[in-house]
Specification:
single chain, about 200 residues, 4-stranded mixed beta sheet, alpha+beta, 7 helices, 8 strands, two-stranded antiparallel ribbon
Length: about 200
Protein backbone atom coordinates (compact mmCIF):
# COMPACT_ATOMS: atom_id res chain seq x y z
CA UNK A 1 0.00 0.00 0.00
CA UNK A 2 1.44 3.29 -1.03
CA UNK A 3 1.74 6.34 1.19
CA UNK A 4 -1.06 8.18 -0.70
CA UNK A 5 -3.46 5.26 -0.25
CA UNK A 6 -2.78 5.22 3.50
CA UNK A 7 -3.56 8.95 3.70
CA UNK A 8 -6.85 8.52 1.86
CA UNK A 9 -7.92 5.68 4.17
CA UNK A 10 -7.05 7.76 7.21
CA UNK A 11 -9.07 10.70 5.87
CA UNK A 12 -12.10 8.52 5.12
CA UNK A 13 -11.88 6.93 8.56
CA UNK A 14 -11.69 10.36 10.19
CA UNK A 15 -14.78 11.55 8.31
CA UNK A 16 -16.72 8.45 9.35
CA UNK A 17 -15.83 9.03 13.00
CA UNK A 18 -17.15 12.61 12.78
CA UNK A 19 -20.41 11.48 11.16
CA UNK A 20 -20.95 8.78 13.80
CA UNK A 21 -20.20 11.29 16.57
CA UNK A 22 -22.76 13.78 15.18
CA UNK A 23 -25.45 11.12 14.94
CA UNK A 24 -24.79 10.00 18.49
CA UNK A 25 -24.92 13.60 19.69
CA UNK A 26 -28.36 14.19 18.11
CA UNK A 27 -29.75 10.92 19.43
CA UNK A 28 -28.60 11.11 23.03
CA UNK A 29 -28.56 14.83 23.78
CA UNK A 30 -31.83 16.16 25.44
CA UNK A 31 -34.03 18.28 23.16
CA UNK A 32 -34.99 21.82 24.21
CA UNK A 33 -38.66 22.24 25.20
CA UNK A 34 -40.77 23.85 22.47
CA UNK A 35 -43.14 26.49 23.83
CA UNK A 36 -46.40 27.47 22.12
CA UNK A 37 -45.04 30.96 21.56
CA UNK A 38 -42.19 29.53 19.50
CA UNK A 39 -44.59 28.08 16.90
CA UNK A 40 -45.14 30.52 14.06
CA UNK A 41 -48.04 28.72 12.34
CA UNK A 42 -51.07 31.06 12.09
CA UNK A 43 -54.37 29.56 13.19
CA UNK A 44 -57.29 30.04 10.79
CA UNK A 45 -60.62 31.10 12.24
CA UNK A 46 -64.00 30.14 10.90
CA UNK A 47 -64.42 33.62 9.48
CA UNK A 48 -61.22 33.33 7.51
CA UNK A 49 -62.51 30.16 5.92
CA UNK A 50 -65.50 32.02 4.49
CA UNK A 51 -65.50 33.44 1.01
CA UNK A 52 -64.69 37.12 0.92
CA UNK A 53 -68.24 38.18 0.07
CA UNK A 54 -69.60 36.12 2.98
CA UNK A 55 -67.48 37.73 5.64
CA UNK A 56 -69.44 40.10 7.90
CA UNK A 57 -68.75 43.78 7.33
CA UNK A 58 -67.80 46.16 10.12
CA UNK A 59 -71.39 47.46 10.17
CA UNK A 60 -72.78 43.94 10.52
CA UNK A 61 -70.48 43.29 13.48
CA UNK A 62 -72.09 46.20 15.31
CA UNK A 63 -75.49 45.79 16.89
CA UNK A 64 -78.07 46.79 14.31
CA UNK A 65 -81.17 48.91 14.87
CA UNK A 66 -84.29 48.57 12.75
CA UNK A 67 -87.52 50.29 11.84
CA UNK A 68 -90.61 48.39 10.73
CA UNK A 69 -92.46 49.48 7.61
CA UNK A 70 -95.93 48.12 6.83
CA UNK A 71 -96.62 46.68 3.40
CA UNK A 72 -99.12 44.00 2.36
CA UNK A 73 -98.62 40.29 1.79
CA UNK A 74 -100.09 36.86 2.41
CA UNK A 75 -99.90 34.68 5.51
CA UNK A 76 -99.57 30.91 5.66
CA UNK A 77 -103.31 30.57 4.99
CA UNK A 78 -103.00 32.72 1.84
CA UNK A 79 -104.91 35.50 3.56
CA UNK A 80 -104.04 39.13 2.89
CA UNK A 81 -102.31 40.74 5.87
CA UNK A 82 -100.32 43.86 6.70
CA UNK A 83 -96.68 42.79 6.82
CA UNK A 84 -94.06 44.63 8.87
CA UNK A 85 -90.79 44.65 6.92
CA UNK A 86 -87.56 45.39 8.77
CA UNK A 87 -85.24 48.07 7.46
CA UNK A 88 -81.79 48.75 8.94
CA UNK A 89 -81.81 52.16 10.62
CA UNK A 90 -78.92 54.52 11.39
CA UNK A 91 -79.91 57.63 13.34
CA UNK A 92 -76.85 59.59 12.19
CA UNK A 93 -77.69 58.99 8.52
CA UNK A 94 -81.47 58.51 8.44
CA UNK A 95 -82.69 61.07 10.97
CA UNK A 96 -85.66 60.19 13.14
CA UNK A 97 -87.39 56.81 12.95
CA UNK A 98 -90.70 58.33 11.82
CA UNK A 99 -89.01 60.26 9.02
CA UNK A 100 -87.02 57.26 7.78
CA UNK A 101 -89.89 54.76 8.04
CA UNK A 102 -92.36 56.98 6.13
CA UNK A 103 -89.72 57.56 3.45
CA UNK A 104 -89.29 53.78 3.13
CA UNK A 105 -93.06 53.33 3.00
CA UNK A 106 -93.54 55.82 0.16
CA UNK A 107 -90.66 54.33 -1.84
CA UNK A 108 -92.29 50.91 -1.61
CA UNK A 109 -90.94 47.39 -1.15
CA UNK A 110 -87.50 46.41 -2.43
CA UNK A 111 -87.16 43.92 -5.33
CA UNK A 112 -86.22 41.07 -2.99
CA UNK A 113 -89.28 41.83 -0.84
CA UNK A 114 -91.52 41.81 -3.92
CA UNK A 115 -90.15 38.38 -4.77
CA UNK A 116 -91.45 37.20 -1.39
CA UNK A 117 -94.94 38.43 -2.30
CA UNK A 118 -94.82 41.78 -0.49
CA UNK A 119 -96.55 44.70 -2.22
CA UNK A 120 -98.01 48.14 -1.48
CA UNK A 121 -101.21 50.00 -2.29
CA UNK A 122 -99.44 53.37 -2.25
CA UNK A 123 -99.26 54.86 -5.78
CA UNK A 124 -95.78 55.07 -7.28
CA UNK A 125 -96.17 58.81 -7.93
CA UNK A 126 -96.99 59.63 -4.28
CA UNK A 127 -94.36 61.85 -2.74
CA UNK A 128 -93.46 63.40 0.60
CA UNK A 129 -93.71 67.20 0.63
CA UNK A 130 -92.23 67.41 4.11
CA UNK A 131 -92.31 65.80 7.55
CA UNK A 132 -92.43 68.32 10.39
CA UNK A 133 -91.49 67.22 13.88
CA UNK A 134 -92.10 69.30 16.99
CA UNK A 135 -91.84 68.36 20.68
CA UNK A 136 -95.58 67.56 20.80
CA UNK A 137 -96.51 66.20 17.34
CA UNK A 138 -95.45 65.01 13.89
CA UNK A 139 -97.03 66.24 10.64
CA UNK A 140 -96.64 64.04 7.55
CA UNK A 141 -97.41 66.16 4.49
CA UNK A 142 -97.93 64.16 1.28
CA UNK A 143 -98.92 65.00 -2.29
CA UNK A 144 -102.53 64.48 -3.37
CA UNK A 145 -101.50 61.46 -5.47
CA UNK A 146 -101.31 59.51 -2.20
CA UNK A 147 -105.12 59.58 -1.89
CA UNK A 148 -106.18 59.46 -5.56
CA UNK A 149 -106.91 56.47 -7.78
CA UNK A 150 -107.24 52.77 -7.04
CA UNK A 151 -110.71 52.80 -5.52
CA UNK A 152 -112.02 52.85 -1.96
CA UNK A 153 -110.55 49.52 -0.85
CA UNK A 154 -107.08 50.48 -2.08
CA UNK A 155 -107.31 53.85 -0.32
CA UNK A 156 -108.26 52.20 2.98
CA UNK A 157 -105.29 49.85 2.69
CA UNK A 158 -102.73 52.57 1.96
CA UNK A 159 -104.08 54.68 4.83
CA UNK A 160 -103.72 51.72 7.18
CA UNK A 161 -100.18 51.16 5.90
CA UNK A 162 -99.33 54.74 6.81
CA UNK A 163 -101.15 54.63 10.16
CA UNK A 164 -99.48 51.40 11.28
CA UNK A 165 -96.02 52.55 10.15
CA UNK A 166 -96.35 55.97 11.79
CA UNK A 167 -97.68 54.68 15.11
CA UNK A 168 -95.00 52.00 15.35
CA UNK A 169 -92.15 54.47 14.82
CA UNK A 170 -93.24 57.49 16.85
CA UNK A 171 -94.51 57.99 20.38
CA UNK A 172 -95.89 61.43 19.44
CA UNK A 173 -99.30 62.15 17.85
CA UNK A 174 -99.00 61.92 14.05
CA UNK A 175 -101.16 63.95 11.67
CA UNK A 176 -101.64 63.46 7.94
CA UNK A 177 -101.71 66.51 5.68
CA UNK A 178 -102.35 66.43 1.92
CA UNK A 179 -100.87 69.26 -0.13
CA UNK A 180 -100.43 71.30 3.05
CA UNK A 181 -104.00 70.81 4.33
CA UNK A 182 -105.02 68.62 7.23
CA UNK A 183 -106.65 65.51 5.74
CA UNK A 184 -109.81 64.98 7.80
CA UNK A 185 -111.66 63.83 4.66
CA UNK A 186 -109.71 62.00 1.96
CA UNK A 187 -110.29 60.69 -1.54
CA UNK A 188 -113.13 61.22 -3.98
CA UNK A 189 -115.24 58.88 -1.86
CA UNK A 190 -115.00 61.28 1.09
CA UNK A 191 -113.50 58.86 3.63
CA UNK A 192 -113.52 60.37 7.11
CA UNK A 193 -110.15 60.26 8.87
CA UNK A 194 -110.01 61.09 12.58
CA UNK A 195 -106.70 62.55 13.75
CA UNK A 196 -104.14 62.14 15.21
CA UNK A 197 -103.66 58.87 13.37
CA UNK A 198 -104.58 55.71 15.25
CA UNK A 199 -105.84 52.21 14.52
CA UNK A 200 -109.40 53.53 14.91
CA UNK A 201 -108.95 56.56 12.61
CA UNK A 202 -111.01 54.92 9.86
CA UNK A 203 -113.76 53.51 12.08
CA UNK A 204 -116.25 56.29 11.31
Amino acid sequence: MTKNQKLILLFVGFCMIIVVALIAFNVFMPKPEIKPDDIQVLERSVQEELAEDEQPSQEEKKEKEYVNVYFIGKNEHNEEVYKAVKRVYNKDIDGSKIRYSVNCLIKGPKPEEKQRGVYTEIPTDAQIINITETPDKVVVNLTSSFVTGGGTESLYKRLYQLIKTAKLNSSLPVYLFIDGQRADVVGGEGIMLSQPLSNSSLDN
